[in-house]
Every structure is written in C-alpha cells, then in structure tokens.
Write a structure and sequence with these properties.
The protein is of the alpha/beta class and about 260 residues long. Helices cover about 40% and strands about 15% of the residues. The model has no long low-confidence stretch (mean pLDDT about 95).
Length: about 260
Amino acid sequence: MQVAIVTGASSGIGFGCAERLAADGMAVLATGRDETRLAEVAAAIGDADRVATLAVDLTADDAPRRIVDAALERWGRIDFLVNNAGVGSPKPLHETDDESLDYFLGLMLRAPFRLARDVIPHMRSGSAIVNITSTFAVVGGLRGGAYSAAKGGMTALTTHIACQYGPQGIRCNAVAPGVTLTPMVAHRLEDERFRKINTEMTPYPRLGTVEDLASTVAFLCSDGGSFINGQTIVVDGGWSSTKYLSDFALSSEWVPR
C-alpha cells in the first residue's frame, strides 16, 4: 500500500486531496493545526487502517521530523508528499511588514523545503512530490506581495527537486490553482472587484473546485503521470493563459475610480 503525506489537510484543497488519494487506495497521513478538523478528515476517509492525523505547526523546527516519523512508524514507507499548507489574503510589497513577510515565506517556502528535504531520503523509485503553488507564481499577482514570492519560490524548488532527484526515480511537479471555491477564498468572493477579476476573466464558465485540484494531484501521483516531472499544471479555467473578457465586462459601462 502506497503512503501519502498531505499538509494543510484540515480543509479546502488539502482535505480534498487526502480524501481522493485515500479513495485511490493509498494510506494518508493528514497534517494540519486543528485536531478537530483533522478528525473530520479521518471520518471522511472512514478507514482506520489507511488514515492517520498529526496536528503540527509546519513552521516549528521539529515539524519535519515529527511528520516523517509518524508516517514511518505507522506504515514503514513514504511514497508521496503533497505540500499544500498555505495562507491567503496577502498585501502588496509596500504594505507588507517584516513579520508578515517572514510568516508567508516560513509557511509556504521554508516549511515545504524542509519537509521535502526530510522526506526524500525515505522515498524509493516511483515516488513523487506535488507542490501546490498558485497562478500568482505564473503571472504577476496584483497585491500578491509575500504570497507571490513564496509561491514563486515553490515553483523553483519544484524544478530543482525534479532535476536533482529525478535520476533516483523521484518526480516533483507543481499544481497551480486559480481561484478555487474553498473556505479560504469564500469571503474574498464577497468583494465585487475580486469576484469580477476572476469570473469575468475566466473563459470557462465557472470557478475552480476542490475536486478539480484533487483529481490533478491524484493524476500526478498515478501511473498515468509517471513521466511528468518538473512541470507546473495550472488549474484555472484559462484565467492566466488568455486575455479573455466576458460579454458582461465588454458591454458594461466603465467609469473612472
């Protein structure tokens, strides 16, 4: 039985990835900060032999060791790592203080770097790492600030791992979500400007779902994705790769701010 570690698994994309990988027959170590929410992941998977949870602060110095030890003690192997944990609502460069900068970089670049570093020695040929980045790592992110910097760093980390450890049969790819309907972004969609930027500039007629991301991650961890390495798969309905504007946007009256 293959074993996957999923960070940030207590909600949103991480929750969906944990469920999907378990449905595909894997054992899953779900990590996050909230024990109550992690218990919901375990309940959703519903098979005590194929799920374990670990409440941990990923930015803590001992977090990688604790996560790796938990997986090895339970199942004796690690086949996949999904670096998903993250935080939203960034500010632009001129509004970002050092504390916020350190937090974003610590959680979304330093933590996945350190966890991958500790996981790789236990991976065998056929294993893979999937880093969840963002469209803000692909195109310029308005107000992205430290978030864009961290996610861009994850993209570079992805290609490094793919190159360095590919000869050992260990692949690494990134999945870059567009705006996805998760609790983290639900409140932002209440902002008319944010909603228009995403709905009126996405040619496919809906926003992304957790299932869209989870199925992409599952594919990259499957035999079907076994020759994909060092790539970023963007899951955004065409938002970042087109200059689309909806009929509504094109026909609306534009007024100066």
